[in-house]
Amino acid sequence: MINYSTGEVRHLIENYQLVCGRRDTTLTRISNIFRIADVDSALRFLPDRYYEVILLHGMIGLTMQSTADILNVSKQAVSKRYANALEDMHYLMNTN
Length: 96
Fold this sequence. Notes:
The protein contains six helices and no strands. It is an all-alpha fold.
């Protein structure tokens, strides 16, 4: 089991596509397979309001304002949800 720091969780989410592209069975990159599996597994347990901001802002890279517009909430709500979602992802990735 990998013990993820909060910074690593954020990096994995915000660079998800890049990390996915760097996974293969070579010894130096096989750990990316496990990291992506841990992200994917944790995402299934997030409440919808957190999953949405992780997907739109964190993984796709939309601005907080664009995310707020799509979700019809304030930019502050997106910011708070994103911070809470990262905390939840950190917990889920280190306990499941």
